[in-house]
Amino acid sequence: MAERALGAADWRGFGREQFPQRSWSVDGDVLRAIAQVERIDLISRERFGDFTLLFDWRLPRAGSTAVLCRVQEEAGPAAHSGPAMQLLDDEHHPDGADALTSCGALYGLMAPWHDLRSSANTYHSARILVNGSLIEYWIDETQVIGCDLSSEELKARIARSRFRDLPQFARLTEGHIVLQHRGTEAWFRRLRIDVTRAGADPAPPLQAS
Q1: Higher pLDDT, 26 or 2
Q2: What distance in Å separates the CA atoms of residue 207 and residue 136, rounded to the nearest whole number?
Q3: Residues 6 or more apart from 2 whose CB is under 8 A from it?
Q4: How far is CA 96 from CA 92, 101, 180, 187, in A?
Q5: Which of 130, 136, 132 is nearest to 194 (CA)?
Q6: Residues 143, 148, 153, 155, CA torsion sign
Q7: Residue 100 to residue 66: CA distance in whole angstroms
Q8: Cα(121)–Cα(186) distance, integer angstroms
Q9: For 97, how many CA atoms within 13 A lie in the half-sphere containing its CB?
Q10: Is residue 94 scored above 50 in pLDDT?
């Protein structure tokens, strides 16, 4: 399937049928989380299995958001089922002090391979690749995460993490994509998705250099 855009019509509020206009604004191809309002995540109307998600993101000083994949809404909050790409202003947000919750991390499980400080107030490109149990995160054309969610290493990390008692976490073969609202502004623009054809052979994840 060819790459296609994900506009406002492709999203709704988490646990809701409609787009949450009081929590997110729309300006062309830009979706913006509005600060100091009810925190309602955006969830894709469609479910996806294997895909490449591309987008640009921007945060204010001390801003925070995340993109989660293969989320099952019935499992509870998005983080109960979907692994998250952490997006953060490391320099001014307290989570930036912990590598496992710093910008580019597989949230709470794996630190990014490269330091991403000084990320506030400018747009950055990002790419999330999901193929089978393999996942990659790229920011500004640099790979920051690559792992196999079904590997013994990741299972051990999950067993030691805050996700250990969540039976659906990182185990689903398809689900929704979620853009998290964490109370600060966050901009997403040029969201596009390319769904991987069934039966495509996944490439092994790269290792940190």
Answers
A1: 26
A2: 11
A3: 194
A4: 7, 6, 17, 19
A5: 130
A6: positive
A7: 13
A8: 10
A9: 3
A10: yes
Q: Would you say how long the chain is, in residues?
A: 209
123, exposed or middle or buried, with CB in 10 Å at 0-12, 13-18, 19+?
Answer: middle
Give pLDDT tens digits for 106-143. 999 999 999 887 789 999 999 999 999 999 999 999 99
What pLDDT, on a 0 to 100 scale, did the predictor assign at position 121?
94
pLDDT at 116: 83
pLDDT in tens, 55-85: 999 999 999 999 999 999 999 999 999 999 9
Which structural domains are found in the chain, ordered by start?
Answer: 4-195 (2.60.120.560)
Please check whether residue 20 is in contact with residue 26, taking contact to mean a CB–CB distance below 8 angstroms. Answer: no
Which value, in Å, is the radius of gyration of the alpha carbons in the chain?
16
**Could you tell me which residues come within 8 angstroms of residue 202 by beta carbon, excluding any fewer than 6 positions away?**
50, 131, 132, 134
